[in-house]
Amino acid sequence: MSLRRRFGGWLLIVAGIINLFACGKEEKQTAQLIQLSPEEKQKVITTIYGLQEELNLCEKERDKGISPEAAEVYPLDREKYLVEILCFMGAYQGNYQYLLFFPHNSTVKKISFTTFTMQLENRRLTNSFTLVGTPHFELEKKTLSVYSLARGLGDCGSFARYRWEDFGFKLLEYRSKSKCDGKYLPPEEYPLIYP
């Protein structure tokens, strides 16, 4: 067996591994390129709060005591950023609004969410510019999960999961436990309402 044949297979494997790591490094560098500096984040937040009347930010129910610094900015890509605004805090969860910010021309678009009415009887799909609960956005997966408590004990409520697609969020699942029975169940295990 020739040396070329003996080592050729190994060379292909080593080359594939090197290429795999090089691609991973390139992806990490791309992700690092769209990291926002504190100054860039502040510019986005300042722009949005400067447009709050025009945007009808938080449907004019924003708690003026909450600092704009509580806002989060997630760079979805170089052309658009997702902005999370805390409108106000209730006893055990917040009310949030999400906006799409375009840095090239500093324009802002409100994001509407498909969700369900809070009524336990006759529950139906609706659209809303604000979400109630505790949100968690995973930038890498571009998914937003929102856990909403029906009462402070946490034994009932709802759980929604959305995925970012182009210019808005798509509802992937909605779960609800309407019986406040004192028995805790992880929200991801609530009965499935949608789809």
List strands and helices in order, with pairings:
Layout: H1 3-33, H2 38-50, H3 52-55, E1 72-75, E2 81-89, E3 94-102, E4 107-110, E5 113-116, E6 125-128, E7 130-138, E8 143-149, E9 157-165, E10 168-177, E11 192-194
Antiparallel strand pairs: 1-2, 2-3, 3-4, 3-7, 5-6, 7-8, 8-9, 9-10, 10-11
- Rounded to an integer in angstroms, the radius of gyration calculated over CA atoms is 22 Å
Compressed to H and E, one letter per element, the order equals: HHHEEEEEEEEEEE
Strand fraction: 35-45%
Give the end-to-end Cα distance, rounded to a whole number of Å: 59 Å
The overall average pLDDT, rounded, is: 84
Count of the separate structural domains = 1
What is the number of beta strands?
A: 11
What general outline do the C-alpha atoms trace?
globular
Q: Pick out the low-confidence regions.
A: 1-33
Which sheet architecture does the biggest sheet show?
A: 9 strands, antiparallel
Count of DSSP H/I helices: 3
Percentage of residues assigned to helices: 10-25%
Helix vs. strand class: alpha+beta
Keyword list:
nine-stranded antiparallel β-sheet; disordered N terminus; 3 helices; 195 residues; two-stranded antiparallel ribbon; alpha+beta
What can you tell me about this protein's structure?
There is one protein chain. Strands 1, 2, 3, 4, 7, 8, 9, 10 and 11 form a 9-stranded antiparallel β-sheet that branches. Strands 5-6 form a two-stranded antiparallel sheet. A hairpin with a 5-residue loop joins β1 (72-75) and β2 (81-89). It is α+β, with helices and mostly antiparallel strands. The termini are far apart. The protein has 3 helices and 11 strands, in the order αααβββββββββββ. The longest helix is centred in the first third of the chain and has 31 residues, at 3-33. It has one domain (36-194). Residues 1-33 have low confidence and may be disordered.
